[in-house]
């Protein structure tokens, strides 16, 4: 039975109706007054795509090269913490999607399913996202564990020296590990469908921290990470190293010089610094500084296939969707996720046809 998702906005609307307020605002919320999210959305909306006519665009492809392989579509799945809050088993739904589409599943440090079953379910199409925290001892234990599990790509997130203040999340008393107090109990009682499913499956936990001597604290400072931390990670990690959360041109140039394999332009879904510049605007500047050949990825604020094409026009080699995928799962489980994914593919393909292109890799840089 169809869920009725015809756009990312549909998925969000349905998710808002079905999720407890605390969970919805955790997924949907941004930093501060959320003006950063609005500015990035406005910057995306201001970008134009020019229709071109009388070009044979009957044979189109969405496939793109990615680290020596071929992804079926030009977008993957951003690392997102505690996805199983959107619905029990959400992490595994995303992993199965990654396997089918041969795209990377970002496995968050704070995922609600352990890294080992996720890379297995994704049939190897998984990248482990790493947070540095505290003195780094536990962080580098996770690196070794990811290596043992078969991960070939690490994504170091660098834009969270301290967890950004997200007022919507704070008003509900949201914490990780997940705790239920009186206000949360009332919230859940008013959303019985979600609550009964969560009760039956058990409350989500941060599954990657079932390790001796490592008790993860989401609020623990990550401020000690520096360029020496990066150098140590580069030395110990034999696979691809992506650095995520870059908005400054000088930082991007320095990362390339430090041996990073790719940079992901991102403002953490606008969840960190409300005053950050629109990432979509920074993308073109960083591409100009790094040249055409350096791998450059993008996330933050993408809501449609047209957005994906715009990101490629600004210099991206690959893009990632985040919270809208959780909304689709909340709206209709695995079927809802498949519906939205197919919408995104269709939107991207139709956009290419409208602008006279048969492949997104031939997108004209602006």
Notes on the protein architecture:
It is a single chain. By secondary structure, the chain is an alpha/beta fold. The chain has one domain: Aldolase class I (TIM Barrel), CATH 3.20.20.70. The protein is 43% helix and 11% strand. The chain has 14 helices and 10 strands. The protein has an 8-stranded parallel beta sheet. Strand 5, helix 6 and strand 6 form a beta-alpha-beta unit. Helix 1 packs antiparallel against helix 14. The chain is globular, with a radius of gyration of 20 Å. 48% of the residues are buried. The model has no long low-confidence stretch (mean pLDDT 93).
Name some characteristics of this structure:
14 helices; two-stranded antiparallel sheet; TIM Barrel; eight-stranded parallel β-sheet
């Amino acid at each position: 039975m169809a869920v009725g998702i015809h756009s990312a906005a549909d998925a969000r609307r349905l998710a808002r109706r079905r999720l407890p307020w605390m969970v919805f605002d955790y997924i949907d919320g941004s930093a501060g007054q959320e003006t950063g999210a609005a500015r990035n959305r406005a910057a995306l909306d201001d970008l134009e795509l020019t229709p071109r006519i009388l070009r044979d665009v009957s044979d189109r492809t969405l496939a793109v090269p990615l680290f020596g392989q071929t992804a079926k579509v030009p977008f993957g799945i951003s690392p997102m913490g505690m996805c199983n809050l959107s619905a029990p088993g959400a992490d595994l739904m995303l992993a199965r999607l990654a396997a089918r589409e041969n795209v990377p599943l970002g496995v968050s440090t704070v995922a609600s399913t352990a890294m080992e079953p996720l890379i297995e379910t994704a049939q190897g199409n998984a990248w482990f996202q790493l947070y540095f925290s505290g003195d780094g001892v536990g962080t580098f234990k996770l690196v070794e564990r990811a290596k043992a599990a078969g991960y070939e790509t690490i994504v170091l997130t660098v834009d969270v020296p301290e967890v950004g203040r997200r007022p919507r999340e704070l008003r509900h008393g949201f914490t990780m590990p997940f705790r239920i107090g009186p206000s949360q109990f009332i919230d859940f009682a008013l959303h019985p469908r979600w609550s009964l499913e969560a009760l039956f499956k058990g409350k989500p936990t941060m599954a990657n921290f079932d390790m001796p001597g490592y008790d993860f604290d989401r609020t623990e400072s990550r401020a000690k990470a520096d360029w020496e931390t990066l150098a140590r990670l580069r030395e110990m990690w034999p696979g691809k190293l992506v650095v995520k959360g870059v908005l400054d041109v000088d930082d991007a140039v320095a990362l390339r010089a430090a041996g990073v394999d790719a940079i992901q332009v991102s403002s953490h879904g606008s969840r960190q610094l409300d005053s950050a510049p629109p990432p979509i605007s920074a993308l073109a500047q960083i591409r100009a500084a790094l040249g055409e050949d350096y791998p450059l990825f993008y996330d933050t604020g993408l809501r449609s296939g047209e957005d994906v094409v715009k990101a490629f026009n600004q210099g991206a080699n690959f893009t990632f969707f985040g919270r809208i995928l959780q909304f689709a799962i909340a709206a209709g489980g695995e079927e809802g996720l498949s519906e939205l994914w197919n919408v995104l593919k269709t939107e991207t393909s139709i956009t290419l046809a409208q602008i006279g292109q048969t492949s997104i890799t031939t997108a004209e840089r602006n």
